[in-house]
Amino acid sequence: MPSTTSLTTAPETGTARLRPWAAVLALAAATFSVVTTEMLPVGLLTPLGTGLRVSAGTAGLAVTLPGLIAAASAPLLPVAARRADRRTVLCALLLLLTVANLLSALAPHIAVLLFARALVGVCIGGVWAIAAGLGARLMPPHQGGRATALIFSGIAVASVLGVPADTFLGSLAGWRWAFASLAGVTLAVTAALLLLLPPLPPEAPVRLGTFARLLRTPGVGRSLLAVALLVTGHFTAYTYVRPVLDRVPGLGAGMVSTLLLGYGLAGVAGTFAGGALAARDPRRTLLVIAAGLGTVVLLLIPASGSLTVSAALLVAWGLVYGGVSVSAQTLLSAAAAPRAREAGSALFAGVFNTAIALGAFTGGRTADGLGPAAVLGMGGALALLAVPAALSGNATSGSRR
């Protein structure tokens, strides 16, 4: 299996030891960039719709479309770029993301914006399919879990820092400047990837048939089902967390922002905690996360009368959910590696993005028909269904190969 372990086996200098971690940090910056770009329209929906003279529902397509495109591009892009160096592919994707953000900033019409957001979807799916499994290639086996956690920490940091900061800029200077500033960030990340990543030839060419064979591998299909149920349940509830929190007495708009910040910070901590636990036993870690997330979401229903209890549960929710991506990725790598690690990452990214869209859709229909409490009930139940799905999988319980 091609690897870059030679970068980590030169003990004579501190630079030789730090170089792989610098590469991992560059990948974390890449995931930060794609997630911030994906979620930015959420904070700019009203001014974006006003500026382009469309309804809020139409403007919301800027959020929905990239997720759907990402779900399709995640498995297809590794097939299209089967023989290309992964460093080159990642740099090209971040450069395309820069162009998409600039095009969004200059969009004179909603059709142009949606075209730009479709390009964003290609970048999201491609970056996740390729970057998610690179931690184990860049670092020695005993540090692979920590490296994967650091790569996935870009998700939580984007929620805590990236989206709020760019939304604030948009409120001061206009939504176009928010996209333009993000283009500058993604261009800088492109340069970092080019400078810090070593050459990364594909481990094995990914073909469409690879996915069919991988799904027949013991543990992979069930693990993906568990991820689908868990992520769908989370986004069913979390997409509509604001109306849920509005039911809590004494909770003003400022306190809601503070609680969501606490949720995001807890998510960062949960990413690293989940990575450490998943390095030892990814299947058990995912089981604990599924049980914990489902329980916390369901407990929010009777806790709606207490600000203190609701706040504590929301922070616990962030802590538990922070470990989902890294533990699921580690579990799938254990089941698929060393034969088809990138194909496993591509399937994971496709399932994850499909689950995000499905969860948001399910939450919306449930909220409209039955109200906020039913949203929590549906989300919690779906998350708990991930427990038997993960239990029935036979994936390797550890990440050591």
Outline the secondary-structure elements.
Elements: H1 14-52, H2 56-59, H3 61-80, H4 86-106, H5 110-131, H6 135-138, H7 144-173, H8 175-196, H9 208-215, H10 220-238, H11 241-245, H12 253-280, H13 282-299, H14 307-321, H15 324-336, H16 341-370, H17 372-391
Helix pairs in contact: 1-3, 1-5, 1-7, 1-8, 3-5, 3-16, 4-5, 4-8, 5-16, 7-8, 7-12, 7-15, 10-13, 10-15, 10-16, 10-17, 12-13, 12-14, 12-15, 13-14, 13-15, 13-17, 15-16, 16-17
What characteristics describe this protein?
401 residues; mainly alpha; Growth Hormone, Chain: A; 2 domains; 17 helices; disordered N terminus
Brief summary of the model shown:
The protein is an all-alpha fold and 401 residues long.
Write up what this structure looks like.
This protein is mostly helical and about 400 residues long. It folds into 2 domains: about 5-195, Growth Hormone, Chain: A (Up-down Bundle), CATH 1.20.1250; about 210-390, Up-down Bundle (Growth Hormone, Chain: A), CATH 1.20.1250.20. The protein contains 17 helices and no strands. Helix 10 (about 220-240) packs antiparallel against helix 17. The protein is globular, with a radius of gyration of 20 Å. The protein starts with 13 loop residues before the first helix and ends in a 10-residue tail after the last helix. Residues about 1-15 and about 395-400 have low confidence and may be disordered.
